[in-house]
Amino acid sequence: MKEGIKQYLAGKIPSEDLQLIYRSYDLIGDLAVVKIPDQALKYRDLIAEAIMRVHKNVKAVWHQTSPVRGDFRLRKLEWIAGEKRSETVYKEYGCTFKVDIEKCYFSPRLSYERMRIAKLVQPGEKIVNMFAGVGCYSILIAKHSKAEKIYSIDINPHAVHYMKENIRINKVEDRVIVILGDAKEVIERELQRIADRVLMPLPEKAYKFLGTAVLALKPSGGWIHYYAFEHAAKGENPIEKVKEKVSKKLEILDVSYNMPFGRIVRETGPNWYQVVLDIQVKI
Ligand SMILES: C[S@@+](CC[C@H](N)C(=O)[O-])C[C@H]1O[C@@H](n2cnc3c(N)ncnc32)[C@H](O)[C@@H]1O
Hints:
By secondary structure, the chain is of the alpha/beta class. It has two domains: 3-85, CATH 3.30.300.110; 105-282, Vaccinia Virus protein VP39 (Rossmann fold, 3-Layer(aba) Sandwich), CATH 3.40.50. It is 33% helix and 30% strand. It has helices at residues 3-10, 15-18, 44-54, 111-120, 136-144, 157-169, 183-190, 203-216, 238-252, and strands at residues 25-28, 31-34, 60-64, 77-82, 87-92, 95-100, 126-129, 149-154, 176-180, 197-200, 222-231, 256-269, 272-282. The strands form three sheets. It has a seven-stranded mixed β-sheet, with helices on both faces. It has a four-stranded mixed β-sheet with strand order 1-2-3-4. 39% of the residues are buried. The mean pLDDT is 96. Residues 71-73, 105-106, 110, 131-133, 136-137, 153-156, 159, 182-183, 201-202, 205 line the site of S-adenosylmethionine (SAM).
């Protein structure tokens, strides 16, 4: 937490309890989402007040009471303070995203990674974003590259609603194409062998859907950006662990590949990491 928040709380909460609540929070547009451990729940209102004092632009504070879960990747939120509103507008690298944080997945922590991918895109590319959410990757790519088309699939109707609105706000209607549905069904039905690049920003399903991503690639092959969660004990390398699993699967799928790049996107818990691999597939 920011220094100002600690200072604001210091006189109001006993110092042994203060240790409990030095946890991080996310700012999404003018909303704050905070995780509070059970032992510190009695200080909920004070924590919210502190966040709003330090971040003058924050209009509401929400308490995240569950991990991100389910097919739509949503977290349970309870309102604590400010306006009772879960819709906000978030800005990133010159793009504007409207999002309802109760109805759609959204994370400001992937901002660097989204831009990293956008910078890799070459003029004229066709891209399939299998798990597009409210459109952050797709719109950032459209704005910062000369990609021809970015087919953007999501199974959550609310995410698709906001993705359509965000495409309009960012004026990329001609290049970002929205498709509501299951990525596997959509690709098998209408996006086989068309893509230069496939994005798989859903670590929970990437392994299962890898064959579908390969199916979306052009007959000449292309790139897959593969996201995974991996556990790594001391001395283990999470990137190498993911590479090993993915290699086995690609061998079963009988494709040639290179994995020239991998990185840890973020830590998601003690010894848990979100990893991305850039996979070059030659079919
Ligand atoms: C972790 S979010 C990523 C959202 C977006 N790429 C971003 O960076 O904000 C994963 C998204 O995949 C969607 N999803 C889950 N299963 C799906 C499936 N089988 N087909 C298409 N979309 C799916 C969820 O609704 C969710 O919006």
